């Protein structure tokens, strides 16, 4: 007599859970870059924090449409 399909599914899930699917290594160039960025984050040399929506020389326009 065979086992019910649920028991087979549970056994398969337990077997898969026991072995890790992804193994992390520390030997690649990407890992080195990520480690370096964690130790010393990238900073712009000019120190500016501009929004991409703002362009140099752009200023706000004052309007008197709003009544207080």
Give a quick precis of the structure.
The protein has helices at 5-18, 29-39.
Chart the SSEs and their pairings.
Elements: H1 5-18, H2 29-39
Outline the structure in words.
Helices cover 37% and strands 0% of the residues. 0% of the residues are buried. The chain has helices spanning 5-18, 29-39. With 68 residues, it is mainly alpha-helical. InterPro entries: FMNL_animal. This is WH2 domain-containing protein. GO terms for molecular function: actin filament binding.
Task: Describe this protein with a few key phrases.
mainly alpha, 37% helix, elongated, 68 residues, single chain
Give the radius of gyration: 29 Å
Order of helices and strands: HH
Total number of strands: 0
The stretches of 5 or more residues where confidence is low (pLDDT under 50) are none
Which geometry do the CA atoms define? elongated
Biased composition (Polar residues): 58-68
Region (Disordered): 41-68
Organism: Crenichthys baileyi (White River springfish)
Protein name: WH2 domain-containing protein
């Amino acid at each position: 007599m065979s086992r019910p399909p649920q028991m087979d599914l549970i056994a398969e899930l337990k077997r898969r859970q026991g072995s890790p699917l992804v193994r992390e290594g520390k030997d690649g160039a990407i890992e080195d870059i990520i480690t370096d960025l964690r130790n010393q984050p990238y900073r712009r040399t000019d120190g500016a924090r501009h929004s991409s929506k703002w362009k140099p020389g752009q200023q706000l326009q004052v309007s008197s449409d709003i009544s207080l």
